[in-house]
């Protein structure tokens, strides 16, 4: 199955935004409702990492070194650099297999890629059809996380205030440049403002309106 998926490049929409901006509940809504009749599969990289890290022993397909590294990624707020991409690739392909990916489905990528090196590596798995940027100011991020605005923060070990600030710095330095990277490549970019009380349903409505207007 995995070899077949590697040869079948999937269409993808990439969600980017700082931690706490609401990517996970929005991605879940895309999976529930689709986009203009297209079935969406929400790949939440952070959630996948947390699930693997909670396992007492390495899940099938992962060795002890990889399992330990994934835990460090979460506990220390690290990014997977280029040399670690095979780990990410395993996680993506396992997700596609679990979800029963079919040609014509749209992968909604949340949390991967997070920098240009990962974006280049992802091209052997997906074709980026669009980029949705959730613009959320740091002060609004902190309010959203402390109040669990999106309803997806319960029990998250990586929501320590120190780690949140570190992730905001990494986002600014490593992930925001993806906007220029994809725009320069001709990929369509939609930017939506997210405030402390923005809901996933409202953001979804604004996105659908934006792509309809852009036709």
Quick take:
The protein has helices at 2-7, 23-33, 45-54, 64-76, 85-99, 116-122, 138-146, 161-175, 177-184, 200-213, and strands at 10-16, 40-44, 106-110, 126-135, 189-193. By secondary structure, the chain is an alpha/beta fold. Mean pLDDT is 88; it is low at 1-7.
Keywords:
disordered N terminus, 215 residues, alpha/beta, 50% helix, five-stranded parallel beta sheet, Rossmann fold, 10 helices
Q: Count of DSSP E strands?
A: 5
Q: Note the beta-strand portion.
A: 5-15%
Number of helices: 10
Task: Estimate nothing, just give the exact number of structural domains.
Answer: 1
Mean pLDDT: 88
The structure class reads alpha/beta
Q: How do the strands line up in the largest sheet? A: 2-3-1-4-5
Give the full name of the CATH homologous superfamily: P-loop containing nucleotide triphosphate hydrolases
CATH class term? Alpha Beta
Describe what you observe in this structure.
The chain has 215 residues and is an alpha/beta fold. It has a single domain (2-213), classed as Rossmann fold (3-Layer(aba) Sandwich), CATH 3.40.50. The protein has ten helices and five strands, in the order αβαβαααβαβαααβα. The chain has helices at residues 2-7, 23-33, 45-54, 64-76, 85-99, 116-122, 138-146, 161-175, 177-184, 200-213, and strands at 10-16, 40-44, 106-110, 126-135, 189-193. The protein has a five-stranded parallel β-sheet with strand order 2-3-1-4-5, sandwiched between helices. Helix 2 (23-33) crosses helix 10 (200-213). The radius of gyration is 16 Å and the shape is globular. 32% of the residues are buried. Mean pLDDT is 88; it is low at 1-7.
């Amino acid at each position: 199955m995995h070899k077949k998926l590697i040869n079948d490049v999937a269409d993808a929409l990439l969600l980017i935004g700082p931690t706490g901006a609401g990517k996970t509940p929005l991605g879940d809504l895309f999976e529930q409702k689709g986009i203009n009749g297209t079935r969406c599969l929400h790949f939440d990289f952070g959630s996948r990492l947390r699930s693997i890290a909670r396992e007492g022993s390495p899940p099938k397909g992962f060795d002890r070194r990889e399992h330990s590294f994934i835990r460090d990624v979460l506990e220390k707020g690290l990014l997977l650099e280029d040399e670690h991409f095979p780990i990410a690739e395993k996680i993506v392909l396992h997700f596609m297999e679990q979800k029963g990916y079919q040609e014509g489905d749209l992968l909604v990528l949340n949390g991967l890629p997070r920098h240009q090196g990962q974006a280049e590596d992802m091209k052997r798995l997906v074709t980026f059809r669009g980029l949705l940027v959730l613009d959320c100011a740091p002060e609004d991020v902190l309010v959203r996380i402390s109040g669990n605005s999106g309803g997806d923060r319960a029990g998250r070990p990586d929501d320590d205030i120190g780690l949140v600030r570190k992730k905001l710095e990494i986002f600014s330095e490593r992930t925001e440049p993806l906007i220029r990277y994809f725009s320069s490549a001709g990929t369509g970019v939609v930017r939506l403002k997210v405030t402390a009380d923005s809901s996933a349903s409202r953001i979804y409505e604004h996105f659908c309106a934006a792509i309809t207007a852009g036709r």
